[in-house]
Write a structure and sequence with these properties.
The chain has 133 residues and is mainly alpha-helical. The chain is 82% helix and 0% strand. Helix 2 runs antiparallel to helix 3. The longest helix has 30 residues. The two termini are 34 Å apart. The model has no long low-confidence stretch (mean pLDDT 86).
């Protein structure tokens, strides 16, 4: 039940932040912003929310687990580069297939990012547990 509630709350927060990002970057048509800058700021903001949410979720949900503070701190270090590398890998995968919009291709791209996210989280946990003892 707690996971479902967390998922719903997280979804509402992300949707709300999406609207805030759109409103913040809804510039007049006369103003030209490079696409790479707009995409970087928008997706960077989303990635920051994901990392912060994951770290907070681990700190709150697993607060009684040993060394969880160290795990959360190490997640803060490992998740950003892992997500950045995974996004680059997913983009390269999509590019290699000429950017198909099929459900299978999109699922594969999501799986690449999810795998990197889970691997970085597992590495942070392993690092915390093995460094402590």
């Amino acid at each position: 039940m707690q996971q479902t509630l967390s998922l719903v709350v997280g979804y509402i927060v992300v949707i709300s932040l999406h609207q805030a990002f759109v409103a913040a970057f809804d510039l007049p048509r006369s103003m030209r912003v490079p696409v790479w800058l707009a995409a970087g700021v928008f997706y960077g903001g989303v990635a920051a929310v994901v990392v912060a949410g994951a770290v907070l979720a681990v700190r709150i949900a697993l607060r009684d687990a040993p060394h969880i503070r160290h795990t959360a701190a190490r997640m803060t270090l490992l998740l950003p580069p892992a997500i950045a590398a995974a996004i680059a890998a997913a983009a390269a995968f999509a590019w290699s297939l000429n950017y198909p919009l099929t459900p299978l291709a999109i699922a594969a791209e999501a799986a690449i990012i999810l795998t990197a996210f889970l691997a970085a989280t597992a590495l942070a946990r392993r690092w915390s547990v093995t460094a402590a003892g």
